[in-house]
Amino acid sequence: MKHYTRREWLKTASAGCAGMAFLTTPITGLAQALGSGPVRVLVGMGAGGATDSIARLYGQKLLDQLGTAVVIENKPGAFQMQAINSVKDAAANGRILYMGTGSSLSLFPAIRKDVTYDPMKDFSFIALTGISSAVITVNAALPVKTLQELVEYSAKNPGMVNYGSAGIGSANHIKTEYLKLASGLKAEHIPYKSDTDILIQVASGTVHLCITTIQSAMPFIKDGRVRALAVTAPKALSYLPGIPGTEEVGIKGLEAIEPYSYFGLVGPKGMPDALIQELNSAINKVTAVPEVQTRMRDTFYTEPFTGTPDEFKTMNQREIERARELGARLKLDL
Fold first, then answer.
1. Mean pLDDT, residues 100-125 taken together
2. 45-59, 154-168, 277-291: which range is least confident on average?
3. DSSP letters spanning 59-82
4. 134-257: which CATH architecture?
5. In Å, what is the CA distance from 81 to each residue of 48, 115, 170?
6. What DSSP string runs through 129-185?
């Protein structure tokens, strides 16, 4: 399986942001193309999570670029299918967009049999906004301090260790199964409905471990309710100092866990190329604003990205292929 390092991912971000000029007035042609009334950005999850928060940040800042209001609409449920179907069925005029995630744009289409859309055919790729790593946590009372110790503990206590996920086929389910395959970890799966649900159960001791977004886990880590063992990035991250990355834990073959997720705006298929390019320019300019980069990193624990629509589309195709290889290795029947 071809692995693209975080450095290769971040090269796109640094190159794009470094050369971006800040713009505070609307792009005239874009404002005319969009017409009157708000632009709707659909989010396939509930309010308050990372995807929703990033969508709202961009919605606020895009007002200056588009010259029109941006309304965020939450359509949770059915693995984001309510939001996805609404975008698929929309007119290709840029008035309805979707804040896609790594799960909905690559992982689910590659692995789940019940997915009825093809992101490479059904969407117009506009702009990647950021990628995020996850953190592997355990109950604070579990007698392990490192990922290697966790693997050894599970071997010495067969059938006694479990892990939680946000549901069968979710990102943390699939990524934890890969962790088990690569490391030899022995753990039984207990599905829940959200990252917060899992973390509450890990903190209580009902569940022993989980892989979740850093944004969800950080309050539990800070107050000592759970212990962080590793992040899914290859190296330690500045906002979790002292917590090793997958290249630093002494276990080989963990690279396919990263990227844990990513975020990007797509629209219905068939959007005019000129409209896609202008929306991409507007979104990239928002990403380049220092306040946005600070919030992405310090609040959402996500690395901001800029790039072209073609780069986003090519990257997504690459991630679909990697996810298919991962699914074949795991032999999951989803």
1. 94
2. 45-59
3. HHHHHHHHSS-EEEEE---GGGHH
4. 3-Layer(aba) Sandwich (3.40)
5. 19, 8, 13
6. EEEE-EEEEEETTSS-SSHHHHHHHHHHSTT--EEEESSTTSHHHHHHHHHHHHH--
Residue carrying the six token digits 């005239």: 28
Q: What is the pLDDT of residue 26?
A: 47
The token duo for 61 is 């800042």
pLDDT band of 4, cuts 50, 70, 90: very low
Helices 214-222, 50-66: axis angle to 10 degrees equals 120
Each domain of the chain, given as residue ranges in start order, spans: 6-132+261-330, 134-257
> What fold characterizes domain 6-132+261-330?
D-Maltodextrin-Binding Protein; domain 2 (3.40.190)
Answer whether 6-132+261-330 and 134-257 agree in fold: yes
Q: Which of 247, 144, 164, 261 is nearest to 211 (CA)?
A: 164
Which 3 state secondary structure label does DSSP give 39? strand
332: helix, coil or strand? coil
Whether the per-residue pLDDT at 12 is higher than 80: the answer is: no
Asked if residue 230 lies in contact with residue 316, where contact means CB atoms within 8 angstroms, the answer is: no
CA separation for the pair 165, 316 (Å, rounded): 24
As a whole number of angstroms, the distance between CA 111 and CA 302 comes to 24
- Return the SS3 of 101: strand
Q: Are 309 and 276 in contact (CB under 8 A)?
A: yes
Q: Give the tens place of pLDDT for each residue, 204-230.
A: 999 999 999 999 999 999 999 999 999
Q: Categorize the per-residue pLDDT at 14 as very low, low, confident or very high, splitting at 50, 70 and 90.
A: very low
Whole-number Å distance between alpha carbons of 266 and 273: 13
**Both structure tokens of 82:** 């309510």
Pairing mode, if any, of strands 96-101 and 39-43? parallel
